Amino acid sequence: MSDKFQTRASLDEARALWKNAYDNQTRKIIVCGGTGCVAGGSLNIYDTLKKLMEKNGINVAVTLEHEPHGEEVGLKKSGCHGFCEMGPLVRIEPQGWLYTKVKVDDCKEILEKTVLEGEYIDRLGYSAAGVLYKKQEEIPFYKQQNRVVLEHCGRIDADSIEEYIAIGGYASLEKALFDMKEEEIIEEIKKSILRGRGGGGFPTGKKWEQVRRAKGDQKYVVCNGDEGDPGAFMDRSIMEGDPHRMLEGMIIAGIAVGATEGYIYVRAEYPLAVKRLQKAIIEAERIGILGDDILGSGKSFRIHIAKGAGAFVCGEGSALTASIEGKRGFPRVKPPRTTEHGLFDSPTVLNNVETFATVSQIIGKGADWYLSIGTANSPGTKAFALTGNITNTGLIEVPMGTTLRKIIFDIGGGMRGDGEFKAVQIGGPSGACLTKEHLDLPLDFDNLKSIGAMIGSGGLVVMDSHTCMVEVARFFMHFTQNESCGKCVPCREGTKRMLEILERIVAGNGQEGDIELLEELSDTISHTALCGLGKSAPNPVVSTIKNFRSEYEAHIRDKRCPAGQCQKLKRIYIDPLTCKGCSACSRKCPVNAISGKIKEPFHIDLEKCIRCGSCISTCKFGAVKEA
Amino acid sequence: MPEPFDYSVVDAALEKCGCKQSAIIAILQTIQEHYHYLPEEAFPYLSKKLEMSEARIFSVATFYENFSLEKKGKYVIKFCDGTACHVRGSVPILERVRSELGVTEKKKTTDDQLFTIETVSCLGACGLAPVMTVNDVVHPAMTPDKAMEVIYSLKVKEESK
């Protein structure tokens, strides 16, 4: 067929054909091709299934065929299903079954039983509390979610523009191009109260309006895919699983504000996302969705990919644009805002991946539909990455206003192991920890702000009673200190001093007054640092002191770690009943802290002991213990 | 006399990314993809071609974590030290690997130039925590023993060559 669609009608025509093909391809095996499942070997599963099916004379369709004969079985590589804990995942259609923890060795049985006979394989199913859940939608992890942005992730072939179009993709773009004026697009986004999903929660429509009104011949649309928060992978999953939806949002933004160039800034740590986006851009250019005179509308838009090089600070707007320009990723003083002086000093729309991925549905289904989900001031849904000491790790999407209790205990399946729920870190190194008392707080932008936390990009790291909160604060401070770009003094020097204090506390050398000193430094840094990252750097310390002050005090005054995690605060003792008096430990001890008579129980001098643990690994009888 | 430096890789990078200052990060990335580090010979050459000072190129190369000015081992092993991996015990794994291979936070590469041990802040594979990558291939749900097993099998493979 001719490559480029010149008109709206020609795209609609093709969509009808592809939709027909898509609908007729009822039998499908969808293998998860997200980073998580790929690491678990899902690509081998895909290849093995393909070979086995071909060998058995089954008509395998890896792409959409224009003239389906209804005989074929579709074999697809999708984006992340979200249930990473149980990966590699394989979905069987039309039944909607979900097979979990699939191995290459299982492929033969899947072919023989499921593909050929239509039988369900019990042992590959997901079961919890003695109940077997055959269908994906019935699994509690999925049942409680509301997938809007992630709707296609795990359902369609992430690499296929045809499939995206078949299920209605790029129809919102058509609407924006031909049925709406630029102002109307912005009005619709403003009406929907879509707030930036990157953390700040700034109204997207307002941002677009500012860029539209700003003076400048060249304007830019930039997508922030520099998801640097440790413990967050929502944006990665969208870029990998539904790249076209994000591109569609960016093109619509470009039309609305009058920009013709777009950039996607992706972390280099996400090689699969880069690959899928590159392919998506090439495909979109091939059929005339990107490039000059899109669908004969006279409008042009191009998208380039800029790969990050490992700097957390580049998630900050002005640092990100500096990095695209080929400079060090330094933030600058604002105002002027990015909307006036952004990329190459031109007016720039800068939104994150999830925000752009939401746009096409708001344009397609209208602002009122969007307002019907979530809470009044924070409508819509939010994707969260659920990780840490929780049973079901993975990617989830829930309406704004969902409580933490529902997320952790209903969707997340509760705590992993024997630990009790202690806290959850929300918003990564810029965020704060929420505790038991916040379990019933509806999560949205404003509620979280009111308790000094932020949604951030949406990482939820769950921690149990075995996690030391002082150590968590130290961990985040180490991260921020390491990633501080060094431009402003409060962040560069302040975080360093805070880290030193935290390090000495967890090492058992804390002093009276350390907590107050940390509080004072936090206050100074959050008021004087140059950029948002510096300003929010003390947040984890402030919130752990606020919620777990007694843990800090135990470390400083009693030289004790209540969670039993801090190595340097562990007390090592020799159990006199088990000790054989062989002297192996005392010979190994680097500081001669262990003494005793041969064949009698030995003893550790705690004043001398440096808690290195070498005696523990030396003892053959397990007599050296930690308390 | 050392062998003269072959600039063809640098030229190819300039060709691919465009000979302009704003493309410097992409150019350095392309060069590093080939050498696994940035050879110092590349800097004066790029400076001339891009008409920007060597100092500025150097400032970019040292700012970003991913660029290395030192030669790396054949296998670059990265341990994720993101929050999720940290909570699930990534530190003991890293400590064990470092002590068994005789490397430290400062001295990252083994003497036989086989392994480089690095940490990386969050690979976004939190569902599989703790993870490590060997030349960008993700190994999920690591323990100190499992990590050493992977490393030893690579060692055996190299020795049998």
Would you kindly provide a written description of the structure presented here, covering whatever features stand out?
The complex is a heterodimer of chains A (627) and B (161). With 627 residues, chain A is of the alpha/beta class. Chain A has five domains: 17-141, Glutaredoxin (3-Layer(aba) Sandwich); 169-371, 3-Layer(aba) Sandwich (Rossmann fold), CATH 3.40.50.11540; 381-464, Ubiquitin-like (UB roll), CATH 3.10.20; 469-557, NADH-ubiquinone oxidoreductase 51kDa subunit, iron-sulphur binding domain (de novo design (two linked rop proteins)); 570-626, Alpha-Beta Plaits (2-Layer Sandwich). Helices cover 39% and strands 14% of the residues of chain A. Chain A has 24 helices and 20 strands. In chain A, strands 2-3-1-4-5 form a five-stranded mixed β-sheet, with helices on one face. Chain A has a five-stranded mixed β-sheet with strand order 13-12-16-14-15, with helices on both faces. In chain A, α3 (42-55) crosses α4 (107-117) and α7 (171-179) runs parallel beside α11 (243-257). Chain A is globular and about 90 Å long. The relative contact order of chain A is 0.08. The model of chain A has no long low-confidence stretch (mean pLDDT 92). By secondary structure, chain B is an alpha+beta fold. Chain B folds into two domains: 8-63, no CATH class; 75-159, Glutaredoxin. Helices cover 46% and strands 11% of the residues of chain B. Chain B has a four-stranded mixed β-sheet, covered by helices on one side. In chain B, a hairpin with a 2-residue loop joins β3 (132-134) and β4 (137-139). The two termini of chain B are 31 Å apart. The mean pLDDT of chain B is 90. Chains A and B meet through α2, β12, β16 and α18 of A and α2, α4, α5 and β4 of B.
